[in-house]
Amino acid sequence: AADKIRLIPQDFFAELCEQIIQHLNHKIPGINTAELCQRIQTSGVDINIDDLAKVANTLSFLFSTAARNNLSTEELVTSLGSGVSTLPKHALQVIRHVWNEQGKAIAVSEDAGTTATVGQFVDMKWKLGVAMSSDTCRSLKYPYVTVTLTVADPSGQITDKSFEMTIPQFKNFFRQFKEMASVLETV
């Protein structure tokens, strides 16, 4: 990950670190690595989304481990600077600053390992469409609903999941949501 960190400009690296700290503090549901990667690439840096996701996972592990072990800023920076593949100077400066400013606020709970294994729902979008025809069928006139769910996985990576449903499937989906809503009202 140290090699990939060298590629990321300091301002983008600082933004990534801030987002990770906010995610660990449960202030945001996750890190939108796709959007950040696109902005980094637009600035002229050749990095792909998988490499950026690996860097984000590494930093998330680093910050959560440091919080669990209650490390001071100096202890964290010293341990990072003495590793086999040392981080670049700009990265150490950013980590020092972010950890010094916001690191102590990371809430470390006893059951942290069990609560973050599923992911988190962020947003849902839907649209109604009609398939008019295809190359094998002249007249379909087939209505469908396309649903896009935005989900933050346990590591904080935000992804979109899309699927299509027929109208009867959508009615069943809607009925299940109404059941969930009524159960939640009783809680």
Automatic annotation (TrEMBL):
It comes from the Eukaryota. InterPro entries: COMM, COMMD4/6/7/8. GO terms for molecular function: NF-kappaB binding. Signal peptide: none annotated. Residues 120-187 form the COMM domain. Belongs to the COMM domain-containing protein 6 family. PANTHER family: COMM DOMAIN-CONTAINING PROTEIN 4-8 FAMILY MEMBER, COMM DOMAIN-CONTAINING PROTEIN 6. Scaffold protein in the commander complex that is essential for endosomal recycling of transmembrane cargos; the commander complex is composed of the CCC subcomplex and the retriever subcomplex. May modulate activity of cullin-RING E3 ubiquitin ligase (CRL) complexes. Down-regulates activation of NF-kappa-B. Inhibits TNF-induced NFKB1 activation. This is COMM domain-containing protein 6.
